[in-house]
Structure formats: C-alpha cells, structure tokens
Design goal:
Elements (H helix, E strand, L loop, with lengths): L4 E2 L18 H20 L4 E3 L9 E5 L14 E12 L3 E6 L9 E6 L1 E7 L5 E7 L1 H13 L10 H6 L1 H8 L9 E2 L5
Parallel strand pairs: 1-9
Antiparallel strand pairs: 2-3, 3-4, 4-7, 5-6, 7-8
Length: 190
C-alpha cells in the first residue's frame, strides 16, 4: 500500500523517534506489513531512502533502496536494506559536499556537507544485528535518513544565507502548496 509522505511542517518530522521493541511479537507482526508498504511508497516517489517519521510514525526505522542508481554504479543493483534502530556511532573526519533533496521537502535541493564514511549498527528486517562501515553515497543516504529519526532535516545543515534563500519555498510548503508526483500529507490543505 502506498502511504502519504509527510511534508515540511508536520510535527512528527521534528520529533525524536522512539526505538522499536523488537522482542515484541506485536511489533514484529506490524513490521511485516509496514516494511513492504514503505518500499512500495519509496518506489512510487522515486526516492532512495525513507524514514518512518516521513510516513507519520515516530519509530526508529529507515529503508534504503539504491537500485534506481544502478546505472551510475552497478554495485547498487541489489542494494535494498532495512535499518531498525540504527545507530551511527562513528563518522569520518573527511567530509564532502553533495546535492541533496528530500521527499518531505519536494522541490528543494541544496548542497550539504557530510562525513564521507560512517559506521552504523542496526537490525535488519529479520532482526539480525549488523555493524557496517558505509562509504560514499550509501553513507550519505543513511546519514540523511537517520537525521529524520532525530527530528533533523537536511535544511538544518545549511548556512543561514542558504536558509534565507529557500525561505519562500518552505513557507509555501507550510501553506500546503506542495507540488509532488506522489501522495503527500501537508500541514494545511492547498
């Protein structure tokens, strides 16, 4: 089922998400349907990552599907992962800037500086533990998505000048003027 993506101004996007109790049978059962719904929603929106707060859930879960980028990098052909309770516990000192967008901020793209590599611990959809080092684009995507779990958006990494330059676009989003090719849930109706 395709779910609406919450846009800028929705309170859940600024709230710190709660860890999932993966020992709970009820939680595990709910995730069996939620995970495929999130992947379907992500594919429909032509994105590469989606955090649970972006669909209105204040839980610490992220999905990443880099397969749409396989033409640029064949290593991404089967890169489809679920990150439950992810914890980025180490970041490289080396950083690089790259353009970013966000399904919750349709029409806004800005250059963001982030660490080139990170180490992350998480559980996958089978509740197996992983500890991985991600570099390059996968590292950028997981940092962007984990920011959502902490109530942070990529625009929070911008300079005051850049924020001032996009203020009109943000105000439009707050007024419900959302132009996206996917289902959204804005603060106000247009």
């Amino acid at each position: 089922m395709i779910l609406p993506i919450y846009t800028y101004g929705q309170p859940v996007l600024r709230k710190e998400a709660e860890p999932l109790d993966t020992t709970s049978a009820e939680v595990r059962q709910k995730l069996e349907q939620l995970i495929p719904d999130m992947f379907e929603t992500l594919a429909h929106a032509d994105g590469v990552g989606l955090a649970a707060p972006q669909i209105g859930l204040d839980i610490r879960m992220v999905i990443v599907d880099l397969s749409p980028c396989a033409e640029e990098d064949p290593a991404f052909a089967d890169y489809k992962k679920v990150y439950i309770n992810p914890d980025i516990y180490e970041e490289s000192e080396e950083e690089c800037s790259m353009g970013e967008g966000c399904l919750s901020l349709p029409g806004i793209h800005e250059s963001v500086k982030r660490p080139v590599s990170v180490k992350v611990r998480y559980l996958d959809e089978r509740f197996q533990e992983h500890d991985e080092e991600l570099t390059g684009f996968p590292a950028r995507v997981i940092q962007h998505e984990c920011d959502h779990l902490d109530g942070t958006m990529f625009i929070d990494h911008l300079s005051s000048l850049r924020k001032q330059m996009i203020r009109g676009k943000l105000t439009s989003l707050l007024k419900g003027k959302v132009h996206a090719d996917y289902k959204t849930k804005s603060v106000r109706k247009p």
